[in-house]
Amino acid sequence: xxxxxxxxxxxxxxxxxxxxxxxxxxxxxxxxxxxxxxxxxxxxxxxxxxxxxxxxxxxxxxxxxxxxxxxxxxxxxxxxxxxxxxxxxxxxxxxxxxxxxxxxxxxxxxxxxxxxxxxxxxxxxxxxxxxxxxxxxxxxxxxxxxxxxxxxxxxxxxxxxxxxxxxxxxxxxxxxxxxxxxxxxxxxxxxxxxxxxxxxxxxxxxxxxxxxxxxxxxxxxxxxxxxxxxxxxxxxxxxxxxxxxxxxxxxxxxxxxxxxxxxxxxxxxxxxxxxxxxxxxxxxxxxxxxxxxxxxxxxxxxxxxxxxxxxxxxxxxxxxxxxxxxxxxxxxxxxxxxxxxxxxxxxxxxxxxxxxxxxxxxxxxxxxxxxxxxxxxxxxxxxxxxxxxxxxxxxxxxxxxxxxxxxxxxxxxxxxxxxxxxxxxxxxxxxxxxxxxxxxxxxxxxxxxxxxxxxxxxxxxxxxxxxxxxxxxxxxx
Length: 477
What we know:
Layout: H1 2-10, E1 17-20, E2 23-26, H2 55-85, H3 90-100, H4 102-115, H5 120-146, H6 150-157, E3 163-164, E4 173-174, H7 179-209, H8 222-248, H9 257-283, H10 295-321, H11 339-347, H12 350-388, E5 397-401, E6 404-407, H13 452-460
Antiparallel strand pairs: 1-2, 3-4, 5-6
């Protein structure tokens, strides 16, 4: 039905005139030189003039768009209402409600863009900003499923082995057990929250100056750079979100994360790439101008219609992915929470502002942790090298008899069987445990029976004293 409707709206004859900037040219004429049409010309949008031959077709498409939007918005608001009634876990539900509100925002903005096409750049500021906010809300929801704070989340990730990045970067590996993984995925998503509204405002400024040129694919116009900057930013955000999901999906299986990521990515993927495909069709002259509106206005109409259709599908996915029954008490299903505090908590933007403000502090803390770990590794390496350079240590000695031992040192070329030690005279009982000056102080020269090494020596009947040290000359290599 949608395809046939769009074909009817875009249907035209080859000899139909095209009206662009009050200049009428034949459709089959070749525009060149001074007659070339300016790509930055103002839009001639859908004609709502009752005397127009296209009036019935355009109004029919607009009415269908409104019906789709009303149904999807009603389904989304009902689900939010049920969450507010059972707002028992606000740490999860505030982010869920923010995700659910994508449907009303997208649907309402699309209806406005269909009717008031000349305000499209202004309306895009609201829609694109909320898209980034909803994507970050889903990322925060996944992390909260893992743990209430960064330390708890890191503890859940401890012990995970290194993994390959998802395609197309599967040649590189990452360590999910460290702080860096959680912080990096968070920053990848958070940058989209900043970049997307910034590029939309920048596009609005260029549109006001007449240099944006919507649907233009030329690098000489601002739309080219805005589109591809958004493409890079959104790709990084979605990739970071998908990498996090792949890593922790097994740890949060009880929350059914698969349906949730399908519902969120469906909205983001279809809205962005659908608009990009329609712009490409305009650039390739697949969508053409006719006597009543040009190709840019037709693309806006088609995009608004398609988004409202997609939002109806997304509303059904949200009911499946984010049911309110997950937060009801089966023993007391009649329990309700107060609506107003729940609404204020869910709609407050303070959490995302706190996260953006805390990002530099977390980065500095992460760098400090990395420096401390690096210093510990360097210190351990220095101590280990000094210990390895010792002539001999108790680890290298095996006690084979009451008065004999063996040395296992591959570094010195010794065999595994070892070499016998020289016999050491037994100490008299009256001086046993005394130091050289005759005092009874324990100078650490003998081993306590509670020590493992000392147990080995005591069982063998041998003892080392400071007055009779072990020397390299006592060994045969």
